[in-house]
Amino acid sequence: MTEKAISPLRRRLIEDMAIHRLGPKTQLHYIRHVKRFADFLGQSADKATAEDVRRYQLWLASIGTTVPTVNVSATALRFFFRVTLKRHDLAEELVSTREPRRLPVVLSPEEVGRLLASATNIKHKALLSLAYATGLRSSEVVSLKLTDIDSDRMVIRVEQGKGKKDRYVILSPNLLKLLRDWWRVARQKGWMSAGQPWLFPGYRGKHTSARQLHRIVRLAAGRAALPNVWAFTHCGTALPHISWSRMSIFA
Predict the structure, then answer these.
(1) Highest-scoring range by mean pLDDT, 69-78, 191-200, 206-215
(2) Of 57, 98, 101, 217, whose CB neighbour count within 10 A is largest?
(3) Among 57, 55, 61, residue whose Cα is nearest residue 74
(4) Considering only CA atoms, which of 113, 124, 104, 102 is closest in space to residue 246?
(5) Can you tell me the distance from the alpha carbon of 226 to that of 180, in angstroms, rounded to the nearest whole number?
(6) What's the pLDDT score for residue 163?
(7) Cβ atoms within 10 Å, residue 78
(8) Nearest CA among 141, 143, 142, 196 for reference residue 169
(9) 120 Cβ contact partners less than 8 Å away, ≥ 6 residues apart
(10) What is the DSSP string of 176-219?
(11) Do the beta carbons of residue 126 and residue 232 sit within 8 Å?
(12) Separation CA 163–CA 141 (nearest Å)
């Protein structure tokens, strides 16, 4: 989008989000939801009234909008009203909905073994093993750098993970061996060119995407005849969980 195509109000919103150091994805979500609200009104979002906000929320409910989407919309509009428009009265009209909490899928050691055995290549096995051995989120797994693997201290450094916090997780000897095997294969096949930083390189200088990791889990779960895992990853954004007390398979 060119500079001329951006309205002064949207430019102000973008600047406010930059000042608050919101991440690129968060900014895109906020812009999208503010635009959707303006489209619903049929006029600029700064012309909204409290009744407009109420009508919009009723409309979202009437079309069956999911709870996470409703909450993101409320968060985006709340920021827009409070920070960009200085309209705290409108922000107070927004309602966030409590999302139902469900128990995660917990795999047994035998099921984990079947899942990993169903991996079709060493990259998939390394990705799955890393995810389950460390408990990292899918976005954290795929964005690891080669320099994050500290074999001297046997830890993995996670930079700016959930909540934009750095932390360390334990690196087991077996997992380290598998990651080294993966690195050697990737170097030999030219997948890991000199100077690129990622542990799991993707296309055009980027790392493998979280979406690709979820696809790998679904495919492996299907081959391992673990339908519950397939359904869980197909519908959600998190990987199935494993009990830390049952992680001897990675020791």
Answers:
(1) 69-78
(2) 217
(3) 57
(4) 113
(5) 28
(6) 63
(7) 18
(8) 141
(9) 219
(10) HHHHHHHHHHHHHTTSS-TT--BSSB-STTPBPPHHHHHHHHHH
(11) no
(12) 16
At position 233, the amino acid (one-letter code) is: T
| Buried b or exposed e, range 223-247, using 16+ CB within 10 angstroms | ebebeebbebbeeeeebbebeeeeb
The length of the chain in residues reads 251
Which tens digits make up the pLDDT trace of 36-93? Answer: 999 999 999 999 999 999 999 999 999 999 998 999 999 999 999 999 999 999 999 9
Structure tokens at 242: 């494993």
Q: How far is 74 from 30, CA to CA, in rounded Å?
A: 10
Nearest residue to 166 (alpha-carbon basis) of 182, 143, 184, 183: 143
HEC states along 46-78?
HHCCHHHHHHHHHHHHHCCCCHHHHHHHHHHHH
Dist. CA 216–CA 198, nearest whole Å: 18
**Would you tell me how many other CB atoms lie within 10 Å of the CB of residue 125?**
20
CB atoms within 10 A of CB 174: 13
Assessment of whether the complete model's pTM goes beyond 0.90 = no
Closest alpha carbon to 91 in 70, 75, 105: 75
